[in-house]
Model the fold of this input.
Amino acid sequence: MRPLAVCALLVLLTGCRASVNLWVSKSETRALIGLATEIFYVQEGVINEYAMNFTVVVPPNISDLHFNWESTSRKAVAYDISLEVANPSVLDRPSLNIPSSGLVPKDHQLFTVHLPCRPGVTAETDVRLKISLLLPRQPPLRRKKTNTLLVFRRGRVCRAEVTPTVAPLGGGDVMLEDAAGPTRLGDPPADDETPSSGVLYMAVGSSCGVILVIMIILAVVLSRNSAAKRRKRALSDTSGEYDSTHHYMQVPTPSYSCHSIRSSHHYASLRPLPTCPSYTSQKTVTTPLGQTIGHSHSLGSHGGAAGFGQTLSHSVSQGLSHSSGQSSGQPSVGHSSGHRVRDVGERVSELMVDRRRVELDTMLEEGTFGRIATGWMADSDAGEKERLIIKYVTEHASAAQVSMLLQEGLVFYGLRHKNLLSVLGVAVEERAPPLVLYPYVKHWNLKKYLQTCSFGARSDVKTLTVRDVVDLAEQVTQALLYLHVQNICHTDVAARNCCVDDSLHVKLADSALSRDLFPDDYCCLADNINRSIKWMAMEAILTNQYTPAADVWSFGVLLWELTTLAQQPYVEVDPFEMASFLDEGYRLAQPLNCPDKLFSVMAFCWSREPEERPTAEQILDYLHGFSKQLSHYL
Done:
């Protein structure tokens, strides 16, 4: 008697559970974003938050959006649908082919949202499709119901010269007429799919043995779901003013390729180039620490032999000589350490400034052995003084630390760009650490500056607007593009390695002393190399190899820093678990104050495959278009 009671209870609980599936078919996904895959917004009652938050651009040649849905619950699930259009003058009577309220069908059904453009209109508007579902509350024995709101975001683009067409739905579609209007049925389940839930319930009711097997399967599935939910809750526990920025999204489908981004040639689209160059065709890519990927010489890559003559001080010579036996914590590829030493020595010789002309002024930041200060350099002829930013190490610093300062501090030697902070000179003195001299910038560090700003109107701090953030991002992208054109990878793109003035003119700087001044941003894994793991692309973490695509990934994290006022990325994730965390598809979620179109830049920068990420040129083109769009409204 007791097994029969258990069987009956299982049937009752299974039948009473409310579950809804809502998805977009492969043909619809291919037409909109170029991916041949189904996208489930709701699967077995579980909402795909990342897919719901992503804005899909609807190009001018498509006017109908098709959604599939079904209810797998025995109890009726009521729905209510509404459409919100930001600019009604763009669309001509948007409509649905199903009633605006009713019951979710128990059989698979396809419904259509019609978004016709007004004739002769060239514009863009945001559309929100809101579906409210009234679901029985869990556990099912309670009588109360819960209201779940789904909001689908679409960006409708209209062009006067484009005639929209109805997207093909494939064979087997059926048109039914009823009082409520036409209903389009399509995408029937394939023959190899699992049988319907009704057949499963009949089998459970007819055989107690089958029920016992199903009970075991359900127990396993529920235990896995509970573990997954506990993990998500653990990742979501945050605090602070912008706590939502610490949640993570998991990519539900393969990462978006830049080839798959539909180009509607309007100013808010991410326009891909004919190909997606990752600069792998270049023979040489030189990294800031003197690494060379390939076989040819690029921009005087760091390399040379040991003798400098009598022009260098004992301290500088000792530090450079040390690097011939031990690098600055980074592997050298393509050139011997001795060749790299000679090149750094030659650069120091060319940049050398008499130490007596340089005067230290105000200390800006102090680490374990590194220092950053303001200072002055006197003009020996005119007697005038030029204000400087000075990086140096203490007298107790080791030869390896002196070598690291010079190798990283001279990486932009010979480069000239308005958004690049190039070294001015190196002041040396007998038996004293060298001073690396840079042009003066009021706010020497962008990360420190962002932490003093606010997105709200406050009188005590600088207020940043969306246009300010986009402008800062554009300037960093221009510097990054300049480096990539020169076949140079930065390898450490982050807010801490940028400087900015009061007029928000930003310059990308080298990473000299960053490991010492920002120790929380770096971590030493099993390879004994101190790296900024949470800013790095997955392939760079695993192989310690850098490409322009890896710089683009880091730029996505920098853009996230700009929109969160320099919060720490992946703050709850252990650095040793970052590679597996990213491999599972988790990424930083959309910040609270970040527009959807700006977040889409970050999402594309974090594509799994390097060749699927946009280039710096594509990012600059997109940001420039977005900036123009903002100027139309602000």
Notes: The two ends are 73 Å apart (CA to CA). Confidence is low (pLDDT under 50) at residues 4-17, 166-197, 230-246, 252-342. Residues 208-236 form the longest helix (29 residues).
